[in-house]
């Protein structure tokens, strides 16, 4: 029998626990175990360390908190409610996991203010956090003055066993260690339970030794259930270590407090059940009813409101001093974090004419990036060890490294998924930074989890993908994309852009930048060629930005429409020329982006692809999957639905039918 | 000036080097640096340790060699040629990276005998190797007798920095350490160069410490360029350690021997160029001309032929003794490794009727797996920490663990990509094992690299994916697949199967097993529901195996065809019933697999979807992307092209239009 007078800490911690228990129980769905076990460490973190203003979740200099183990989101929602965020009321908590509630089943930053990133898929949150810490370090290096540190906050993570098993987290953690991101602190909820059961079944590595190898500062807290002092000391120690990220292994009991389900996977992912909820109340001496929070606890939590208001006020003062002393920097800083693009930035976009040399769109992409970088202070990024191939290096800056955080070229290493999650984190720092991440289009396969989350979580990221077809040649079928453009098009909210020449590449970046800072933010993926392509007559940035447009036409209603994207537009142009010489009325449509085209009004779309013109041929060096939408029953598609081959790119293209003769022959067949 | 008499080792090592240099030069494409740097360790391995028969690349008890750093494939091709494999002649080497040559740009097991797995995408090979070692351990535990060890071989890997940066390799390596796979030995070519330049730029972790944390035995060789003795000792040591996998960091110089490009990323991924090739010849004192191999070296290498023949002969004798003593085991072993399925295995497939309880296809999948496991000795697999959710646990066996390698349930942990690559490795052990790997359909995103490779490399794997739509409910949009089925359909050579009920689930497994052992092997991916579905009248294993079939029909030519897959077939059935009551002629087609349907003859396909019937409605709780193929301009698709929502599954399905009323309304609209 537990004494009825509990310390304020116990009251607060159990408040978190029981909000989670009750919410999951009411929804009859969810994950009570982690909130019950991690409540102590979360309380210590939020009560003693986390600097935030519940009434202003967007306060620039707040510490960032990420629950990487997103399934435990009732932990986060409980804290948001208890500390006084307006975004989560008690009613919202009662609506946990219900249609359009503010408390969805995994944390969604676009749904619930106070949630920084979208988690659920394991490994993403901790990797986003590397991006958040990266953004802080970068902005601090760029803007802080010795007497005015306006950028100064920590990034905290609560991560699970599952997070640390995922490869993406090892990638991002290796990067974090390499970069020495000293203001990143991870609390590892070591409850040695996962869905299958004990971690003994599959996860017996020495996690701290691995992290030591990754260059992190390591600590452990033996009793994460009741030893609040040790948790506090460990976090304080971690803050003191400024040249390494820190991980603290906090050993807890999942489902702590539940007599029959604690320390078992039974408490991981299902409601405890009425009887067990009652038994847990008894075991922990919790006399309060469903969703009832003791006033003392609420008062204690709500002190965060005054604390936060004061912290923000102090920062406002500091920033006012900064602006007074460093007017130019102050102006630039404000413009940046408000997401305002400098006026006239589009003037920096290169324009091309058919007289310009034929070039690979990956090269033109490099030219655009280099032209935009001085014009867009927020643009920064890098490649997963393919900078010379992706052409993403910005010559006017250096490498972002330890003690060189002001630079704008990231070296992500051969870590595509880590790169993706880090870029999402940089975007979600919400400070006007526009990150780009690059690799070969084929390796979008390695990072699809992060690409999808950029679309779902509304991250303003630019994905720069080169070597986009069999045209890349000898590297062969393991490297030649076939299904990739189609499969990326299928992701909602992601705009895929496959430019045909320099103007279309500039257009792609215009759109990508606008989407990155738009409302809502949205990601864009560029698909770029390895091989040289001519600059086309009739292309322009403005037309390309519509996603599809008439590149060239005959008089009157066309008999036939040739639709091309990227490297195949040239074939359409050549075939059209010949067909017109033979007296046919042919229109050439370049369609660099389905999504942008579909977003145009009906009148425009009809003007480009009139319904009445049913004879159409689409040409794209990728799968034909999905093209029926634009060519219909009377049309044809020239594509490739099988794996590629290791051979010189020109030969592969030629032999697989990507040549003018084949387009002609197909067109004539369609014309009948 | 180098002395013209070189040791036989130097002659051999330089033979490897110059074949690589010359082949890349001739192709003007490829990666000379790694072969030049890793030639010494590869020579020691192949000369002193690797047990193989060049004249029988399929010899069961051969050691397995994997070049995880697949871009360095000229290293492997050179060794295949030099040691006397028939699969790679000198002409083949001269055709490096040319159309349909046996020496493609990255190693392809289906192209070149002697190559065990397809590599190129980094991190895959070393992870496949965990699967190869897993297969060896499993078969050894099942079949070996104390006096007759017929399964006894090592798995060796040469891996690069890039391989070790990739998250997938950390996942698989953690699993290998957990499992104590003592016969897995990795040589880490530590040349501190990657495409971007020095690894100092991005990869500064203490790799050996990380691997120590992962439970591996660690060693290092300081001078991997010339200290052959140390390389040899390290491999010998590694073989002695029987309870841990081993990694040996061998420090080398990329492009060793090239005066101007050694130790630089310039030698990584491009031909050296005529002048540098000549300079390298001079530096290494190599007097032989293009593709010319000194006879002494060739003779030395070719001793592998006699060695291999003898090793195989000894093994054959051993196996003969085994069969004599242990006839039953011998018979079973032979049948298994020859890929022969036991006669009548299909009888074990459960059959269902509409009277059987409504059930989730994930549950029925579990029933099928449990029924098949005793009937198919090669079937084994597991889940990425979702066994209770995926229902993949086979009750008649235990967990595959250290000292329990005979068991058939794998615990992959939260490591989807590692699981994928490990399963590919198990399949590529080519011993009749049929692995299955399971997770939530949404997390195919995390392992697409491995899924694609299963299709490209012709691996007989079964991918078991559950929770396949918004029907899964409260976990919300981060977990609800939208674009996944379409994007997986777009992968060539992969059959995606979305069964509607128990019979179709059995049918899916029938097909999947046949594909796994077919010629060629091929993977299959199952998409299974979380929620209960009724068993449908008219379904059967045989019909489902055709990929699409008429579930129910009216008399004569239908006016309308309703096409459903998986959980939505029920809606089509219900709507058809109503429409028929209203006097309409309606056909219901269940289409569990596009790929299997397309593989049927034209007559069959026409009989199911007659061209003349243009009024069609397709219903699938996923993206509409690609369905135009089957519904045409006059048809309609009921799907979902936006992200899902966190709410109870039934509510989500209902509100997003997956209900009989909406199918009816859409059908009537189409009928006009």
UniProtKB/TrEMBL annotation, chains A, B:
GO molecular function: metal ion binding; transketolase activity
Positions of the Transketolase-like pyrimidine-binding domain: 359-535
Site (Important for catalytic activity): 31, 268
Record-listed E.C. numbers: 2.2.1.1
Magnesium among keywords: yes
Catalytic residues (UniProt): 416
Xref: SMART domains: Transket_pyr
Known catalytic reactions: D-sedoheptulose 7-phosphate + D-glyceraldehyde 3-phosphate = aldehydo-D-ribose 5-phosphate + D-xylulose 5-phosphate
EC class of the enzyme, as a word: transferase
Pfam families registered for this protein in UniProt: Transket_pyr, Transketolase_C_1, Transketolase_N
Cofactor: Mg(2+); thiamine diphosphate; Ca(2+); Mn(2+)
GO cellular component: cytosol
Residues involved in Mg(2+) binding: 161, 191, 193
GO biological process terms, semicolon-separated: pentose-phosphate shunt
Keywords from the UniProt entry: Calcium, Magnesium, Metal-binding, Thiamine pyrophosphate, Transferase
Residues that coordinate or bind thiamine diphosphate: 71, 120-122, 162, 191, 268, 443
Positions annotated to bind substrate: 31, 268, 362, 389, 467, 475, 479, 530
Subunit structure: Homodimer.
NCBIfam families: tktlase_bact
Protein family according to the UniProt entry: Belongs to the transketolase family.
Physiological role: Catalyzes the transfer of a two-carbon ketol group from a ketose donor to an aldose acceptor, via a covalent intermediate with the cofactor thiamine pyrophosphate.
Protein name: Transketolase
Protein source organism: Euhalothece natronophila Z-M001
């Amino acid at each position: 029998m537990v004494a009825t007078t509990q310390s304020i800490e116990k009251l607060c911690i159990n408040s978190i626990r029981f909000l989670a228990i009750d919410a999951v129980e009411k929804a009859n769905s969810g994950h009570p175990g982690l909130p019950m076990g991690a409540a102590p460490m979360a309380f210590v973190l939020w009560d003693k360390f986390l600097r935030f203003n519940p009434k202003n979740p967007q306060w620039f200099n707040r510490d960032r908190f990420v629950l990487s183990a997103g399934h435990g989101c009732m932990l986060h929602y409980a804290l948001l409610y208890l500390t006084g965020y307006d975004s989560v009321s008690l009613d919202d908590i009662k609506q946990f996991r219900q249609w359009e509630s503010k408390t969805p089943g995994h944390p969604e930053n676009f749904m619930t203010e106070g949630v920084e990133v979208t988690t659920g898929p394991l490994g993403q949150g901790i990797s986003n956090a590397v991006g958040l810490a990266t953004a802080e370090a970068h902005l601090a290096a760029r803007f802080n003055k010795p007497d005015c540190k306006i950028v100064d906050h920590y990034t905290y993570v609560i991560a699970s066993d599952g997070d640390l098993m995922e490869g993406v987290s090892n990638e991002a953690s290796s990067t974090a260690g390499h970069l020495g991101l000293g203001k990143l602190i991870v609390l590892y909820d070591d409850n040695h339970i996962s869905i299958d059961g004990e971690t003994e079944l599959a996860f017996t590595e020495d996690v701290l030794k691995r992290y030591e190898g990754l260059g992190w500062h390591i600590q452990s807290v033996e009793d994460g259930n009741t030893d609040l002092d040790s948790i506090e000391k460990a976090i304080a120690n971690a803050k003191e270590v400024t040249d390494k990220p820190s991980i603290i292994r906090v050993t807890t009991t999942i489902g702590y407090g539940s007599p029959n389900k604690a320390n078992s996977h039974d408490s991981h992912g299902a409601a405890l059940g009425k009887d067990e909820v009652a038994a847990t109340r008894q075991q922990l001496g919790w006399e309060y009813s469903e969703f009832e929070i003791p006033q003392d606890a609420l008062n204690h939590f709500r002190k965060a409101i005054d604390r936060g208001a004061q912290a923000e006020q102090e920062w406002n003062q500091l920033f006012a001093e900064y602006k007074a002393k460093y007017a130019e920097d102050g102006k630039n800083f404000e413009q940046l974090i408000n997401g305002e693009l400098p006026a006239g930035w589009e003037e920096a976009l290169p324009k091309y004419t058919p007289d310009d040399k034929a070039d690979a769109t990956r090269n033109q992409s490099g030219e655009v990036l280099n032209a935009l970088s001085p014009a867009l202070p927020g643009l920064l990024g890098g490649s997963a060890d393919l900078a010379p191939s992706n052409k993403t290096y910005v010559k006017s800056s250096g490498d972002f490294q330890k003690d060189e955080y002001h630079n704008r070229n990231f070296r992500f290493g051969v870590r595509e998924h880590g790169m993706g999650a880090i870029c999402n984190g940089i975007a979600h720092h919400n400070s006007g930074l526009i990150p780009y991440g690059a690799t070969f289009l084929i390796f979008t396969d390695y990072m699809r989890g992060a690409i999808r989350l950029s679309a779902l979580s509304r991250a303003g990221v630019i994905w720069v993908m080169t070597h986009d077809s069999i045209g890349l040649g000898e590297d062969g079928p393991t490297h030649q994309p076939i299904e990739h453009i189609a499969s990326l098009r299928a992701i909602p909210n992601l705009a895929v852009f496959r430019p045909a020449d320099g103007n279309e590449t500039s257009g792609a970046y215009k759109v990508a930048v606008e989407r990155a800072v738009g409302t809502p933010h949205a990601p864009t993926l560029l698909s770029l060629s390895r091989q040289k392509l001519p600059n086309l007559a009739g292309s322009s940035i403005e037309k390309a930005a519509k996603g599809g447009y008439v590149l060239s036409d005959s008089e009157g209603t066309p008999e036939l429409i040739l639709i091309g994207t990227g490297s195949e537009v040239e074939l359409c142009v050549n075939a059209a020329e010949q067909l017109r010489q033979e007296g046919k009325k042919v229109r050439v449509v370049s369609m660099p982006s389905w999504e942008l085209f579909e977003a145009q009004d009906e009148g425009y779309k009809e003007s480009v692809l009139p319904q009445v013109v049913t004879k159409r041929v689409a040409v794209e060096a990728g799968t034909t999957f999905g093209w029926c939408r634009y060519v219909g029953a009377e049309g044809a598609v020239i594509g490739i639905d099988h794996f590629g081959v290791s051979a010189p790119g020109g030969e592969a293209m030629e032999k697989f039918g990507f040549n003018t003769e084949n387009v002609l022959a197909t067109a004539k067949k369609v014309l009948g």
